[in-house]
């Protein structure tokens, strides 16, 4: 039985896939099968069939919707280690949002080659790759203490802000529709919100989510 592990490289560009594969091999990765995918259909098929251990996904793969799509991937593939990479600079709100989605790290492909090789080796030995400005920060769904929101509440808050309807949340979290409705009602009460517009206003006013991150969802 083979011990070779599978790494997926997701990018909309063949050249970027090829370059990233070459970097992975140059970093000393010899016991991995590296596969490139160029679109969402290929990615979903490979996640299901190849059952990879690692996914390196380009920041622009989902054309700006990366954090939401990553959240779905991470939740459905709990053993998969996901790293976002890119050759472009991203603002802090974007990086925070992908870490809150549950990724293991961000690989800045613009940095010096020696530093990049070091980050790739860290990634493929199961270690986090966190930008220096975020070291020591907890990116989990932190409860909003002033509003008595729990970690589970914050997961609902995230999904509601992303535009998920109650039925979609129920399907996504494998819950009964009435359970989702009850949770939404309880969250509204904690935030003293009477409707979704008031809810969105309150999550900003009370600092449940940062304004920059909210505006760029």
Explain this structure:
It is a single chain. The protein is α/β, with parallel strands linked by helices. The protein has 2 domains: 5-134, Rossmann fold (3-Layer(aba) Sandwich), CATH 3.40.50; 145-215, Winged helix-like DNA-binding domain superfamily/Winged helix DNA-binding domain (Arc Repressor Mutant, subunit A), CATH 1.10.10. The chain has helices at residues 14-26, 40-49, 66-76, 92-100, 113-123, 151-161, 166-173, 177-191, 196-205, 211-215, and strands at residues 5-10, 32-37, 54-58, 81-86, 105-108. Helix 1 (14-26) links the parallel strand 1 (5-10) and strand 2 (32-37). The longest helix has 15 residues, at 177-191. The protein is globular and about 55 Å long. The termini are far apart.
Structural features:
single chain, 217 residues, alpha/beta, Rossmann fold, Arc Repressor Mutant, subunit A, 2 domains, five-stranded parallel β-sheet, 10 helices, globular
Radius of gyration from the alpha-carbon trace, in angstroms: 19 Å
Terminal CA distance = 44 Å
Under the CATH scheme, which architecture of the largest domain would be assigned? 3-Layer(aba) Sandwich
CATH topology label of the largest domain: Rossmann fold
Which runs of at least 5 residues are low in confidence (pLDDT < 50)? Answer: none
Tally of DSSP β-strands: 5
Q: Which class best fits the helix and strand makeup?
A: alpha/beta
Strand order of the largest sheet: 2-1-3-4-5
Strand content: 5-15%
């Amino acid at each position: 039985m083979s011990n070779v592990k599978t790494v997926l490289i997701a990018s909309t560009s063949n050249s970027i896939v090829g370059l990233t594969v070459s970097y992975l091999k140059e970093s000393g990765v010899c016991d991995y099968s590296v596969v490139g995918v160029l679109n969402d259909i290929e990615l979903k098929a490979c996640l299901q069939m190849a059952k990879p251990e690692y996914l390196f996904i380009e920041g622009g793969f989902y054309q700006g919707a990366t954090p939401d799509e990553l959240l779905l991937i991470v939740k459905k593939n709990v053993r998969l280690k996901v790293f976002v990479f890119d050759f472009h600079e991203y603002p802090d709100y974007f990086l925070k949002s992908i870490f809150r989605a549950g990724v293991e790290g961000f690989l800045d492909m613009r940095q010096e080659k020696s530093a990049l090789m070091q980050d790739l080796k860290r990634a493929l030995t199961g270690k986090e790759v966190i930008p220096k400005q975020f070291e020591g920060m907890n990116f989990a769904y932190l409860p909003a203490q002033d509003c008595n929101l729990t970690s589970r509440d914050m997961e609902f808050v995230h999904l509601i802000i992303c535009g998920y309807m109650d039925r979609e949340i129920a399907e996504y979290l494998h819950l009964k529709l009435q359970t989702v409705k009850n949770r939404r009602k309880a969250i509204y009460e904690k935030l003293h919100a009477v409707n979704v517009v008031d809810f969105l206003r309150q999550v900003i006013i009370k600092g449940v989510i940062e304004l920059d991150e909210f505006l760029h969802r």
